[in-house]
Amino acid sequence: MKYKLIIFDMDGLMFDTEKIYYETWFKFQDKYAFTFSEELRKKFTGKNEAGIRDELVNLLGSLDKVKSLRKDLEADRIESLKSYRGSIKKEGLDDLLEFLRAEKIKCALASSNDRNKIDLLLKKENIYDYFDFIISGENVEKSKPDPEIFVKAKDAFEFSNEECLILEDSYNGYKAAQKSAMDYLIIHDSSFDKYFTADREVDNLRSVIAYIK
């Protein structure tokens, strides 16, 4: 097969977590005197902590307020991720991971989220062992739409750009994938209305199998 490495984003692609994160913003609007919106969600999605922090400083006007808000958000989100029942895996994820394992295709996870939440989710959903390499937002200097996180994931292996496929759901991730010189597919997060059109899209993670074949 052409591809030797599949690079996964996590939130919104593998797990239905963006909806959880989205709802937490509204809990702290009054405390920090700001209005969260769908436009802000789109702007933040795919960015790492540093990228979101820079945007929030412009919104709140104070780095101290931003640090306090992020601390409140983090505590609330960790509790939500620990306490949810059932599974929040996206359609086709299990099928795709099993296919890649059977075909001996390597899997990397390149998420702008922090490593603590990445490990929590992968272990809770029992798919941690499917991934050969994990890189988080703490491991890069530049946030998506910069391709640094994808390039570092690829560089952990001895594969060419042509042998790698990036899977993403967000606009920032899409632009980063375009700049990476690797192949990519966009699977839009079905929890929200589609807000951009990519030149390479499939409906769900199960559809990636046919693309790879």
TrEMBL record:
<protein>
    <submittedName>
        <fullName>HAD hydrolase, family IA, variant 3</fullName>
    </submittedName>
</protein>
<keyword id="KW-0378">Hydrolase</keyword>
<dbReference type="InterPro" id="IPR006439">
    <property type="entry name" value="HAD-SF_hydro_IA"/>
</dbReference>
<dbReference type="InterPro" id="IPR023214">
    <property type="entry name" value="HAD_sf"/>
</dbReference>
<dbReference type="InterPro" id="IPR023198">
    <property type="entry name" value="PGP-like_dom2"/>
</dbReference>
<dbReference type="InterPro" id="IPR036412">
    <property type="entry name" value="HAD-like_sf"/>
</dbReference>
<dbReference type="GO" id="GO:0016787">
    <property type="term" value="F:hydrolase activity"/>
</dbReference>
<dbReference type="InterPro" id="IPR041492">
    <property type="entry name" value="HAD_2"/>
</dbReference>
<dbReference type="Pfam" id="PF13419">
    <property type="entry name" value="HAD_2"/>
</dbReference>
